[in-house]
Protein 1
Amino acid sequence: AREWIFARCWPCVHEQQRNDRGKGVQKMDKYEFNIKVEQIRKLSNQGDFETAMKIADTIDWKKVRNANLLSMVANVYEKNHEYQDAKEILLMAFERAPIGKRLLYKLTDLALKEGNVEEANAYYREFLAGDDPRQHLLRYMILKAMDAPIEQQIHSLEGYTEEELDEKWLYELADLYHRAGDAQRCVAACDKIMLM
């Protein structure tokens, strides 16, 4: 699956893409780079993702080795609905730290936000290589994007909420129960939320 990910999701044109969109990547020294990274961090923490992205656009991320920094920048692009750029940067991070389940999870999420279920499934299959409760959550998100039957969605989301207590996903599970006409399980899920 890893070969498919890089062959299919890592187009050669990505190097030219930023320049084609009018973004001015500049050469800079380490001091200037560190200043810009700190500005991106501050702006992100303040919720000003648009300005953070403008600064990020001036940096050549291919040279950056820090997977955590690349993940933060990918988040900036995601917040600006620039999912393709976010995926490209996360793929760089994944290339540098291929054991990162968090990166595969995020890549799956971004592919779904782009409406690319086939690509999301490829990342999901790679994610399955280990034992992580988020695999149930990813499966649910894929099923939801495919408009799969409610019972299938419920089954996947139940698998996640049995292992992880997360208010957001418990609420979504309660909503699925409600839509499926299962009032008893809907109330039970709401009770769990109230006890958190």
Note: The mean pLDDT is 83.
Protein 2
Amino acid sequence: FRRVLFRSRKTILTRRQSSTGDARLKAQSDAHDNLQLKTFQRWWQSQVPSEKITDLYADVRNGVALCKSIEKLEGEKLPYKVYLAPKNKFEEIDNLANSLKLFEDKEMKLVNISAEDLHDGNKKAVLGLTWQMVVHYELADLSTAELLEWVSEVTKGFEGIDLADRGGNKVWETAFCDGRAFAAIVDYHSSAYKTK
């Protein structure tokens, strides 16, 4: 009986410790997700200041912000009809589908991102699309050394960002893992955009 009791008590303690660790990891993950969401919302807002981006997942749903941001980033009108005031779900999805088709034509890497997922507010799809847009439009022409130099300059003065290269380009794995460097870059761009 004692053996069974001891084993069950040990199991309960292990489960408690595990759940405490899980709760801590979940809290860290949630904090990271919130920082990433805020950062991406600010990036979208800097691209389409005419649109009020307060809830990224909802504000991307109708495709209007996406179409306007593409026009700004491409510097030209889109080659398809854009519904600026979509009247129904079909027009919203049409905006999104045409935008995704344009990205595919430009050989932008979109994996498991569909117009329906964006319309449904799928978090991974919206965040994945945002990141691919940043990479494609903001970072595509920079070499690694140029990018590191630029990021170092932009993030200078922000606390908690360490961009020291310790060899083997580990800087990218460490400096960007918590989202602070990316947030500093977006903050820099938001500030620069406001002064124009």
Note: The chain has a mean pLDDT of 80.
